[in-house]
Amino acid sequence: MDMTLARTDFPAEFIFGAATAAYQIEGAAHGNCGVSHWDTFAATPGNVVNAETGALACDHYHRFCEDLDLVRAAGFGAYRFSTSWSRILPEGRGTPNRDGLDFYDRLADAILERGLKPYLTLYHWELPAALSDLGGWRNRDVAGWFADYTEIVAKLIGDRMAAVATINEPWCVSWLSHFIGAHAPGMRDIRATARAMHHVLLAHARAIEVLRANAIPKLGIVLNFEHANPASNSDADIAAAKRHDGIYNRWFVQALMHGTYPADILDTLAAHMPTGFNDDMAAISAPLDWLGVNYYTRSILRDAPRQPWPSLEAVEGPLPKTAMDWEVYPDGLYATLSRLKRDYTGDLPIIVTENGMASDDRIEDGTIADRQRIAYFNDHLAAVMRATNEGVPVGGYFAWSLLDNYEWALGYGKRFGLVHVDYETQRRTPKASYEAFRRMLIGDSGTISLN
Ligand code: FCB
Fold first, then answer.
1. pLDDT digit string, tens, across residues 110-166
2. Ligand 1 pocket by C-beta < 6 Å: which residues?
3. What domains lie within the chain, and their CATH numbers?
4. Of the chain's two ends, which shows fewer C-beta atoms within 10 Å, N or C?
């Protein structure tokens, strides 16, 4: 079971990495971490499968050295991780938690000691509950709170980072969490959504200002994209797919790159937007050094005229699916990367910051034969290569995820890791996909590439 691609198919400077996020692996019960809105969301009946929480997760808080050894031993050159706002500032503001600062200080050194490039994300979703009480992403003040938190992290570890992203997946922070209600804070309200969709970008803008003032290099943001197809050739379904594309794919990148929101979506959302939002667009579109792209699947949309705006629903597609029921569609990654360069990012470097799949992995005779995952990685890497061969400046690729972990509202059942985690014993077992990456990146020689 190997990839058909070789390391030498990519430029020497192309970065291969593995990605994680704080709440999904650390164990929020440890180290005097503050309560986040994910803790309270998960404590609410019906929100998370099996009522699972991130309290213990992968116990990475105590096992990060072992976990980083695994990143290095696979031959990866970079590690993407996030700092938890609640661990650093248990009340969201005010006095930092000494244990939290120490943890990220030691983590940054441990990443560097292994010759890995640290890719930091400042917000991967665990908003301190104290700030949620004040309206969280609905409150314009969140931008200032986030900037103050950013300043603390910048001063603590900023100069040791290879690259820093402000926010992971603004669509999830706003739409998924305030309109669909599937993630914390679990709201379903269009006014809250419109505010969150703007404030998340304003918070990004304020954080970039702080990071620039602290001379932190290589600044970006991580957006998620989902290739959007209409369910039929009818005008109504084509328009439904366009609405989904506008909300999911165009809203954030158009604001960041061109300083405007897509007119077709703003038509409806304008009534719910915060007053004077246009005055923020210059700051929101300040230049970045790179864009992070998370890609997993496509969606197929049909018009649902009896539903309120955006009056659409997803239909099941015909392609093979992952354990998330997501279709495997590598061409969508190619199409996304090509479109980004053409319509939005031009020569701005792109890094694929997440790509991967969940499967029902089981240990049999001490091994996990996750063949579908190897093919998934191989085919998506081929899509990246196709885009780079056509001139899209993609500089790196991070597999999601290093470890099986807490898959948010779906709990621990959805396994995305290159490394299997037994949650009873916390034992780590590298899967066949981990070995396939290792053979691709460093062969059997054991030589570790530092790119
Ligand atoms: C992305 C998230 C990441 C993980 C993957 C499967 O949306 O950024 O934390 O949950 O999906």
1. 999 999 999 999 999 999 999 999 999 999 999 999 999 999 999 999 999 999 999
2. 21, 24, 168-169, 172, 224, 294, 354, 400, 407-408, 416
3. 7-442 (3.20.20.80)
4. N
